Write the C-alpha cells for this entry.
Amino acid sequence: MKRLDRNFFIRDVLEVAPELLGKILVIKKDGKIERYMITEVEAYRGEEDLACHASKGKTRRNEVMYDIGGKIYVYLIYGMYWMLNFVTGEKDKPQAALIRSIEGFDGPGKLTKHLKIDKSFYGEDLTTSKRIWVEENINKNNFEIMSLPRVGIDYAGEYWKNVPWRFLLKK
DNA sequence: AGCAAGATCGGT
DNA sequence: CCGATCTTGCTG
C-alpha cells in the first residue's frame, strides 16, 4: 500500500513504463476508493519520437509533458475518448506513459470512461493527489512482460511505428 | 475563419 | 471497413 513517489516517475519512460505493469492504480470515485492492476502501457518519448505529441514542440495541450515526472496528462481523442497518461522523466524532457489497460477494462478509452477520468485530471500530481495515485503491488512482484509495437500510430513513419514500446503482462 | 486529422471503439 | 464526434493545430 505504498504510494509510488517522485523518484519512481522521474526516470526515463522506457524504465518506468514496463515497471508500471502489475502496479495498482488507485482512484477515488463517487467517494469510494477503488483499486485496479495496470496490465498494459505504452511509452511516448521526446520530441524526436514522431508518435509522441511533443514531436511538434510544446503546445497548450501537451505542455504538462514538459513538466516533472509524476503529473497526469489527459487529452480527448476522436471527440469522444479521454486518454490517461503519466508524465515521466525530468522537467523539460517531454515523455509520458499511456495507460492502455487495467484489470477488467481493456482499452484506453474504456478505462477512462469507467474511472470517470476527464479534463479535470489534467496536471494532477500522482505523488500528492487525494483522488488518484499508484501503489506497489504487495501480492506480486514477478511478472512476465511482453513488448510489442504501439497501436494506432501509422502516421509516425516506419521506424517509430515499429519500435516495441507497448508493454503488457503475459498471461 | 476554416479545415483536416486524430495514442479509439462499436457496429456492419 | 466505417461512422461518431469535437478539440487541436496549422494555414491563410
